Amino acid sequence: MKKKLLIAADIDPRLAALAGHRFEVTVNPVRTEDELMAIVGEAHVLVTRAYSKVSRRVIESAGQLQVIAQGTSGTDNIDEAAARERGVRIISLPGENANAVAELMIGFMLSLTRTVPFYTREVVAGKWPRDDCSTRHELRHFRLGILGLGQVGMRVARLARAFTMSVSAFDPYLSDDDFDRRGAMRVRSLEELLASSDILTLHVPLTVQTRGMIGRKEIEKLPRGSLLVSAARGEIIDQRAALSALASGRLAGLAMDVFDPEPPAGLFPDDPRLIVTPHIAGCTHECRHGIAEKLWEKISAAVAPD
């Protein structure tokens, strides 16, 4: 009898096609913890996404579970202690979506520095506001600060250097040689990074240390008129503080692809200096297809054939 593989999230159909010859595959994307608990019972392999809360309750509801496979870098949505206690292996794909995320971050920077949302709104309203376009700046004018120089941060650094930006980064877990290879100048503290960044972009995982890492006090340490761009987990940044700083003019632009909670509670202001997207940085055709194939490789290697 084939083992059961449950795809409980929105994954490229390629995964189900690849897994079908070895597993009994069920595709049932769900969003809530209770919905996941209701369907996970007989699964040997559970495939999730970052929005799936794989809690202790979920794990303990799956008596045959061997593997939790997730096509993202972060696994903070999974109760790792509960999985460990039950002997359940967690599979993730660090860096698989790095290029997609990095490209969108550069797109956010271009859109904010050239005030593309403002011009779009004006032209749609029948206006033609060209008088002040020469007050905008090219990316090479800006000092970029990267918080977290992992797979995504490294890719952002390399793309930014192609625009001849000055690139600095803070990441206490890397060596000086790592910084040299990844194309960023090392700063020794978060405070130093904040003080020297005209654009700050966030690329750290959600941990006890990074939760709430960028709050009101940190934002106030950025030079006035800076831009803040985030594709890290929503819990890392105090979003109310960021929106308040935008409203006051301390921030000249804010772009966020991640929120706490998701979907975010409440409405955002109608402000052309603000860009908000629904956690789509790592979501491209190329990335989703590649994730499906990489997940299958790891699942196939992790689960012994019957």
What does it look like?
The chain starts with a strand and ends with a helix. The chain has helices at 14-19, 33-39, 56-60, 80-85, 98-113, 116-124, 151-162, 176-182, 190-195, 216-220, 239-248, 285-302, and strands spanning 3-7, 23-27, 45-48, 67-70, 89-91, 143-147, 166-170, 185-186, 199-202, 226-230, 251-256, 274-276. Helix content is 35%, strand content 17%. The model has no long low-confidence stretch (mean pLDDT 95). With 306 residues, the protein is α/β, with parallel strands linked by helices. It has a seven-stranded parallel β-sheet. Strands 2-1-3-4-5 form a five-stranded parallel β-sheet.
Helices and strands, with pairings:
Blueprint: E1 3-7, H1 14-19, E2 23-27, H2 33-39, E3 45-48, H3 56-60, E4 67-70, H4 80-85, E5 89-91, H5 98-113, H6 116-124, E6 143-147, H7 151-162, E7 166-170, H8 176-182, E8 185-186, H9 190-195, E9 199-202, H10 216-220, E10 226-230, H11 239-248, E11 251-256, E12 274-276, H12 285-302
Parallel strand pairs: 1-2, 1-3, 3-4, 4-5, 6-7, 6-9, 7-8, 9-10, 10-11, 11-12
SSE pattern:
EHEHEHEHEHHEHEHEHEHEHEEH
Give the number of DSSP strands: 12
Biggest beta-sheet profile: 7 strands, parallel
Question: How confident is the prediction overall: mean pLDDT?
Answer: 95
Neighbour order of strands in the largest sheet: 8-7-6-9-10-11-12
Q: How many angstroms does the end-to-end distance come to? A: 8 Å
Global structural class: alpha/beta
- Number of helix segments? 12
| Low-confidence runs | none
Rounded to an integer, what's the Rg over CA atoms? 21 Å
